[in-house]
């Protein structure tokens, strides 16, 4: 017992030292408040960490669910084992009454068997039927560490059954309540006088493996066992698309040049990553051969932090750059600019890691501190700054589309809704058709609406996601001031990017608007009877619906556009194989609308290919960016027989106002 006590104290000392060594580095990062709304945080922690909601969303996640809850249940068994080693004569069966002890050991026995089975399946998955996404450049499913951890857990289960089998054979444990261990007892009973020796062997096997696991845990990726649960507690409770605001002042540094420029939550994310590869599997950039791998990016933060720990603590420049040439712990500029901020990685992550905000932070450093960005963005930034639209068209042209119909300006106190047309709806010749159709729908339903005309400015979505926070900040302040001056309270948008920016981002600038996307509004008008179909639209043929990332994943609007299509056509739209929360990006988000794809295959072609596999006549969208990307993709695929329509165009074809 003295030897075990000494080894236990050493193991606990190593555990505390290693945890403190790593977690203390988080204090080097920027502060961030993640302690608001504690009841909701506790609920989310229970749902995502203990309930494993996202883990079990995939079939093999059930295996992890079994391992996780086996650990939770067996904490009691292992606690009892440690007490037996520290306190001579201690035995849980003598402390607890039989009515409690017998069900408990029965649970231990069954859970241990389930855990052993889950570990065997985990071995098989890595060796026999390994999915591609389990591997990345610096993380491998068949690594020594992965097999060592699985071996530790498996050996703990074997030692448990062996030790209790000996105890049952010696009459020290109730065989009736330990069915699996009783089988082991039957096998071990054949050893006769060797039973005590076998008991000592299994006891020390269990002890040494358990203590080795305690020592190794904080040194490995399995430190996520300690950090994943609190990471779920500290998750972002706001919109997943919104970025952190910056305060501009002389002498300030912007974005993330080195790892300590991130917030403590960003660094805590890096220790919480389970390296499961789900974000990698969901990422459209990774799927189309780009250098971006969201798992690898998070891994690079942890690697960079640990590699630079000594220098950062001493106040010295980091030795390993955060942004630079390819290497472990470093992100290339190509990687940083590849992100579409679609949020697929966020949606897939079981432990609520926030990937896009980290990439945007690095973009901010490149844009605001280095003026270093892809060449095609120079015109975009200049056009936005000078004329408040991506194309640099004169603001007086914003309302040119109104020449085809009578449109009233927004008047405070008289007009209920501001129709925020957006840049695409004002200037893009194809999207202007959507604007006209939406205007006709609003008039047909008797909605009180108006526009700002030439006074409307870009919302700044692309600027913020591209890292040009300075111009976005100025633009947002100007828009908020104008909305407040004009008395704007309710806003209709056609573009999900305008929708999320006005609804979520502008809250950081002191205004809370009631923003509704046209998909939601049209659905409400149809459901209430204010808008009725004159006829079902049959000219579209077979319709497939594509989810915009910024409408669906970032704002949870999935059903409204589908209901609109179903009402207008009389048939629910066909679904992509990847739909709803698992929808695949069109490739235009995160400012990628204004950039060329220099590596891999084009994201929009991947999505168009998926659509054409369903043989649709019409691809229905609810986003001008998606419309552009699909139409370009269909041209490249020479699939002119398939058309792209916005839901407003579909409804406008068959509307009848209520009289």
From TrEMBL:
Keywords: 4Fe-4S, Iron, Iron-sulfur, Membrane, Metal-binding, Oxidoreductase, Transmembrane, Transmembrane helix. Residues 264-295, 328-358 form the 4Fe-4S ferredoxin-type domain. This is (Fe-S)-binding protein. The chain crosses the membrane at residues 66-87, 99-124, 144-163, 175-192, 198-217. InterPro entries: 4Fe4S_Fe-S-bd, 4Fe4S_Fe_S_CS, Cys_rich_dom, HdrC_iron-sulfur_subunit, Helical_ferredxn, NarG-like_sf. Pfam families: CCG, Fer4_9. The keyword 4Fe-4S applies. It comes from Geobacter benzoatilyticus. Signal peptide: none annotated. It comes from the Bacteria.
